[in-house]
Amino acid sequence: MPASNRPDVEAPALPASPHEGPAAIYVHWPFCLKKCPYCDFNSHVRDEISHADWRNALVTEIRHFTGLYPNLKASSIFFGGGTPSLMEPDTVAAVIDEVRSAWAPESEIEITLEANPSSVEAGRFRAYRQAGVNRLSIGIQSLRDDALQFLGRLHTVEEALKALEVARDNFGRASFDLIYARPGQSLTDWRQELSEALAFGMSHLSLYQLTIEEGTAFYHQFQRGKFTLPDEDEAAALYDLTLEMTDKAGLPAYEISNHARPGEESRHNLSYWQGDFYLGIGPGAHGRAPHPDFGAASATAQIKRPEDWLASVRAHGHGTQDIETVLAEDRMVEALMMGLRLMEGIDLKALENRFGVAAATVINAEMLQELTAGGYLQQSGSRLALTPKGRPLLNYLLGKLLA
Questions:
Q1: With contact defined as beta carbons under 8 Å apart, do 127 and 91 qualify?
Q2: Angle (nearest 5°) at CA 194 between 188 and 198
Q3: Are 394 and 340 in contact (CB under 8 A)?
């Protein structure tokens, strides 16, 4: 066990900052009823959970960050996991109340909770709305029962449809996730499934191609040849179809995998993609916190194992395991990498002003010219964005552009 995980060892200290301005607040609930075979998030299955202990610990860690950054304004709260819809509504309410008290927002903030559509969890949706949640993100993943079984999900399509109805009735803003490019999925199959999804009239959809992450159950099955995925051309065709159908339905892509009606974009996730500050609360949560040096940030990582995080919060008031200073130049690189995920791209001049770093010091000018001439990137004034041709190749292009 690393020394920083032990409650009897002094936890690392973050540099305080008088920074005034918005920050997104991420709250991690690490527990699930079952580990999905494709998931590489910090999620754990436990037979028993003391909800009172977890409620107190989450509030305590928020208060720790409040002491360091008293002048922040919460721009959003996002309950992620794990499975946050296993949280008691009282815990959700306590966290929301503490954030509002600590970093009083200047206007109504977006408060999102990730939820699964099982009957038990859907029964809590109304209580979460009363607790202060105003946006729900539901992990449907598929509208086909055989695909749900393959993906290791515990709900059925029937439960998913009922959960969507409850969400639509109780939340002004709701979104749901689907995973496509599954084994054997054809363009015809996906066209029909996506048509059904769009028919619900939700204001936001997150549509992810199935990827195989190292360390997951799917990774080992895939390595042993238990299943195959669509090849590169098939995956590209599925992606193009997704863009075409969502655009026609009035939910154009605003990020590579996210689609929304204008004005319904996830404001919390935009904070990540636009390189803003965010605080990570709970086991395994990461943050980019304000730093006393101009343009820099403090990269925080909380202890991952739930029991160790809980013990550290009891002993020290927080569960921070690692702290690193992200220099202005590195923040510039991060902002470029994340911002190019957005359809609107990035404003290089705005980033230069924010970080005090010239874009030319991190971008390979020769490669930028080559990729633009090749039709992968487009530049208008100081704004740089991927073209439709370049979007499926984002990681490859970043490797060239930032080399």
A1: no
A2: 145
A3: yes
128: tokens are 């979460």
Q: Residues for the chain: how many in total? A: 403
Record the tokens describing residue 367, joined without a space. Answer: 């490669």
Pairing state between β 320-326 and 377-380: unpaired
Give pLDDT tens digits for 288-307.
999 999 999 999 999 999 99
Q: Confirm if 7 and 321 have CB atoms less than 8 A apart.
A: no
Task: Give phi and psi for 44, each to the nearest 5.
Answer: -140, 150
What φ, ψ does residue 254 adopt, rounded to 5°? -110, -10
3-state secondary structure (DSSP) of residue 112: strand
| CA distance from start to end of the chain | 36
**Rounded distance, CA 293 to CA 274, Å?**
20
Contact 101, 49 (CB under 8 A): no
**What is the full DSSP assignment across 115-151?**
E---HHHHTTHHHHHHHT--EEEEEEE-S-HHHHHHT
Q: What is the pLDDT of residues 348-365, one digit of tens each?
A: 999 999 999 999 999 999
Which value, to the nearest 10 degrees, does the dihedral of the CA atoms of residues 394, 372, 243, 134 take?
60
Secondary structure class of 365 (helix, strand, coil)? helix
Angle at 13 between CA 307 and CA 290, to 5 degrees: 105
pTM exceeds 0.90 for this model: yes
